[in-house]
């Protein structure tokens, strides 16, 4: 074995410069002298081959160009946890001079010797380490725990540890470090490609106080998550992005305290996988960004009813997915606690070219939503969205069997499947009147654009802006636009306008359901906003 090469090098994580990888082979290579390490690199572009050389397969790689051979002296197998902490926080032996550890001091012509200065410096280091509560040793080449109980003696007050992007090879190493931290609450071991237990292990109290755990890019599977989770009795936040998790399983008797789950950047088999985690009783936030899901369905609840799945879910992120049908957005109204939604970059959003109408449709379809794509939904904006929705689809409602007379009102199942909230909106605002029922008008050149100046006369700090708006745009939609434009808090807007042709005359825009053209507004006029 080469000098300095760890006896357990095979299978361990290591680095060479800024590149990380796992040792898959230790030994000789044909027609060369000495020992070589066969490394499968995290970044395949760093490699040269699949583990074979001159017709001999020395090790296997997942990528055809993911492997190469390096000499042992080029490999860094890392340091123990405490060494990394001392290096990161400037508390190792090299910094002893700042504590005055020289043994002699000269006073004039006399040299005075101070006995025990080394031990004093060591005590001062101990005190400094014991004060650390939040510790980050990200990218510090940590590979093992070090001497037994050394961490617990030295860093007794740690609560939050960032161990991301190191050289940790197995979950056992994480346990060896964490078991010496009595009150560990937050642990980040992301970007360590490590081995996890494949069978049930003895449950220890290592993570008895752990509330936040990040395992992004660790190659953990959902089965391994559930096995390890037996030791996470009070965990509240679990981050699992970019782990190639495709299939979920029901978490029986584990993760019952979980409030946040991040599964982003894992290509789930289908949306039905979500049903397997739908009974987590305390889950409030679910992050499913870029998981490949194309539909969402809660089959236990009919139109207009609430599902028993995800009973506590308040915040849902489904952005960057393949959801193409509005029916999935309809389904989200079945979630009893949903308050915030992120859904950008899904194909269904391309079905409506006017972004204002798109936002209104989503708001109208999900009754309890308060935040959409990180923007607060104000009461006036919701009211306008629901009134417009009720009007836009009024003709479809009538043709499907809807009627102003409750006894004759029998819309078809097909209509209710497409517009499950429509009956509730009719109850809330009344059935639409015949004069309101105009077909949907796409925003085209036929809808004349008005160039208007928008001012806030009572708010001089707000600069006037110029906007182009279709003359068919209702006052309610204009208000929704202005709420976002001026970031106005939840209050009632009052709009009026001054004509460029009639100086000094101000006309109040007092009917939310009327379009701009109803008030004879023309390009060049000035809209005045007050609140």
TrEMBL record:
Annotated family: Belongs to the TBCE family.
Keywords: Acetylation, Chaperone, Cytoplasm, Cytoskeleton, Leucine-rich repeat, Phosphoprotein, Repeat
Example of a GO cellular component annotation carried by this entry: cytoskeleton
Superkingdom of source: Eukaryota
Name of one Pfam family that matches: Ubiquitin_2
Positions in coiled-coil regions: none
Domain CAP-Gly: residue ranges: 27-71
Gene3D superfamilies linked to this entry: CAP Gly-rich-like domain, Phosphatidylinositol 3-kinase Catalytic Subunit, Chain A, domain 1, Ribonuclease Inhibitor
Xref: InterPro entries: CAP-Gly_dom_sf (IPR036859), CAP-Gly_domain (IPR000938), Leu-rich_rpt (IPR001611), LRR_dom_sf (IPR032675), Ubiquitin-like_dom (IPR000626), Ubiquitin-like_domsf (IPR029071), Ubl_TBCE (IPR044079)
Gene name of this polypeptide: Tbce
Protein name in the entry: Tubulin-specific chaperone E
Subcellular location(s) per record: Cytoplasm, Cytoskeleton
Example GO BP: cytoskeleton organization
Role summary: Tubulin-folding protein; involved in the second step of the tubulin folding pathway and in the regulation of tubulin heterodimer dissociation. Required for correct organization of microtubule cytoskeleton and mitotic splindle, and maintenance of the neuronal microtubule network.
CDD domains hit by this protein: Ubl_TBCE (cd17044)
Known partners and oligomeric status: Supercomplex made of cofactors A to E. Cofactors A and D function by capturing and stabilizing tubulin in a quasi-native conformation. Cofactor E binds to the cofactor D-tubulin complex; interaction with cofactor C then causes the release of tubulin polypeptides that are committed to the native state. Cofactors B and E can form a heterodimer which binds to alpha-tubulin and enhances their ability to dissociate tubulin heterodimers. Interacts with TBCD.
Species, as recorded: Chaetops frenatus
Keyword Phosphoprotein: yes
SUPFAM superfamilies associated with the record: Cap-Gly domain, L domain-like, Ubiquitin-like
Positions of the Ubiquitin-like domain: 450-529
């Amino acid at each position: 074995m080469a000098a300095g090469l760890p006896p357990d090098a095979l299978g361990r994580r290591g680095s060479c410069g800024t590149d990380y990888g796992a040792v898959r082979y230790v030994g000789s290579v044909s027609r060369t002298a000495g020992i070589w390490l066969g490394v499968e690199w995290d970044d395949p572009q760093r490699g040269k081959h699949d583990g074979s050389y001159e017709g001999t397969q020395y090790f296997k790689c997942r990528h055809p160009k993911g492997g190469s051979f390096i000499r042992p002296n080029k490999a860094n197998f890392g340091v123990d946890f405490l060494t990394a902490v001392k290096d990161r926080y400037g508390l190792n032996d090299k910094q002893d001079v700042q504590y005055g550890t020289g043994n002699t001091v000269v006073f004039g012509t006399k040299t005075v010797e101070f006995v025990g200065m080394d031990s004093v410096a060591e005590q001062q280091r101990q005190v400094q380490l014991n004060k650390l509560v939040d510790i980050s040793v990200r990218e510090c080449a940590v590979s093992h725990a070090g001497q037994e109980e050394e961490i617990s003696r030295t860093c007794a007050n740690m609560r939050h540890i960032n161990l991301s992007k190191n050289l940790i090879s197995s979950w056992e190493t994480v346990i060896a470090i964490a078991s010496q931290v009595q009150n560990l609450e937050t642990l980040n071991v992301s970007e360590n490609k490590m081995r996890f237990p494949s069978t049930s292990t003895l449950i220890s109290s290592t993570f008895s106080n752990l509330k936040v755990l990040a395992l992004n890019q660790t190659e953990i599977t959902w089965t391994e998550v559930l096995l390890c989770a037996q030791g996470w009795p009070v965990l509240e936040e679990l981050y699992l992005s970019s782990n190639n998790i495709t299939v979920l399983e029901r978490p029986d008797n584990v993760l019952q305290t979980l409030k946040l789950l991040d599964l982003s950047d894992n290509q789930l088999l289908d949306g039905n996988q979500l049903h397997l985690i739908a009974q987590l009783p305390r889950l409030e936030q679910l992050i499913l960004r870029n998981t490949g899901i194309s539909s969402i369905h809660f089959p236990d609840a009919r139109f207009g009813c609430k599902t028993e799945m995800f009973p506590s879910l308040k915040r849902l992120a489904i952005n960057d997915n393949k959801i193409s049908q509005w029916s999935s957005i309809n389904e989200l109204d079945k979630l009893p606690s949903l308050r915030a939604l992120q859904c950008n970059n899904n194909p269904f959003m391309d079905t409506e070219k006017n972004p204002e109408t798109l936002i209104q449709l989503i708001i109208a379809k999900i009754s309890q939503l308060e935040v959409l794509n990180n923007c607060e939904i104000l009461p006036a904006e919701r009211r306008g969205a629901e009134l417009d929705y009720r009007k836009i689809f009024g003709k479809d409602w009538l043709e499907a069997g809807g009627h102003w007379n409750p006894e004759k009102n029998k819309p078809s199942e097909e209509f209710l499947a497409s517009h499950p909230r429509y009956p509730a909106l009719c109850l809330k605002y009344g059935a639409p009147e015949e004069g309101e029922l105009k077909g949907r008008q796409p925003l085209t050149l036929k809808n004349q654009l008005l160039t208007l100046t928008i001012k806030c006369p009572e708010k001089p700090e707000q600069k006037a802006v110029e906007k182009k708006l279709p003359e068919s745009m209702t006052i309610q939609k204009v208000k929704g636009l202005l709420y976002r434009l001026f970031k106005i808090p939840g209050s009632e807007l009052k709009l009026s306008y001054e004509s460029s042709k009639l100086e000094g005359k101000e006309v109040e825009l007092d009917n939310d359901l009327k379009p701009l053209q109803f008030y004879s507004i023309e390009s060049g006029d000035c809209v005045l906003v007050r609140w």
